[in-house]
Design goal:
Helix content is about 10%, strand content about 50%. The protein contains two helices and twelve strands; from the N terminus they run αβββββββββββαβ.
Length: about 260
């Protein structure tokens, strides 16, 4: 397909999803990075990803009650692939909370699919909560756009850099618009019993600006037990302690089926 035509069709489809109501009906986090959603990856079509995310306080004063966030259990499904573009939808159940259900959705395309050396691109929405009125609303409805590019291994760095921007409703806090940055690298290639090659270990770091629910960052190490099962763990910190409290440790389990 002609490159310009593919770009036009991709742009039109994404715009239609955002402004005709397809994406906002879908939500808390889509396929993300570590703390942020700064990631252009999309779940493979007809694949389901199950993710369990826990944040807790590693150290605390004896006079203080240890902080532990509600557990986020997320389900993301690869909806379709069309002209190299993939789409996913998801739902998160965050418990124990009063309004635990959030929705998300994302459309993305991999690197070098639009034209030679083109970056990976994605647009999505997340934290689409169900409480839209009164105090403690959960409809943050955060729209994000991301661009990613792999670094050449010849630079002795390798990995991939992703940049993005986001904007949402008043429910997310004081600063409703910001930027994100992420870096990830996989290493230690191995093969499973069937001969499928994958990377045993990975490193990831990300950050989002602003005093809001998503402002902050962290870094972690990923251990891939199989090509479809992994655990990521490490510290996270936040730009506004009145919203998210002090820094937390996270353990994130991901299983794809």
């Amino acid at each position: 397909m002609n490159v310009l035509l593919k770009i036009l069709i991709t742009t039109c489809l994404i715009t239609a999803c955002l402004f005709m109501g397809v994406l906002p009906q879908m939500g808390a986090e889509p396929t993300g990075a570590y703390w942020t959603v700064c990631n252009t990856d999309v779940v493979d079509t007809h694949t389901t990803n199950i993710c369990v995310v826990n944040y807790f306080q590693l150290f605390h004063h004896h006079s203080e009650q240890p902080e532990m966030w509600p557990i986020d259990v997320g389900l993301t499904y690869g909806l379709f692939t069309w002209n190299d573009m993939k789409a996913e939808i998801g739902i998160d159940y965050i418990t124990p909370t009063r309004d635990p259900v959030y929705f998300n959705a994302k459309v993305g395309i991999d690197e070098e699919k639009l034209f030679p050396y083109s970056p990976g691109m994605s647009v999505g929405i997340f934290d689409v909560g169900t409480k839209t009125h009164g105090p403690n609303k959960t409809n943050q409805d955060i729209v994000n756009v991301c661009f990613s590019k792999s670094l050449p291994d010849a630079m002795m760095i390798g990995g991939r850099v992703t940049v993005g921007g986001f904007g949402g409703n008043h429910a997310m806090g004081k600063n409703r618009v910001g930027v994100m940055l992420a870096y990830n690298r996989a290493f230690c290639a191995v093969k499973d019993a069937s001969g499928t090659e994958y990377n045993k270990w990975g490193f990831i770091a990300d950050y989002a600006t602003g005093k809001n629910t998503g402002g902050g960052g962290g870094f972690g190490v990923t251990c891939n037990f199989t090509p479809t099962i992994n655990i990521t763990t490490g510290p996270t910190w936040f730009n506004d302690h009145t919203i998210n409290g002090s820094w937390q440790w996270t353990i994130q389990l991901s299983v794809s089926v």
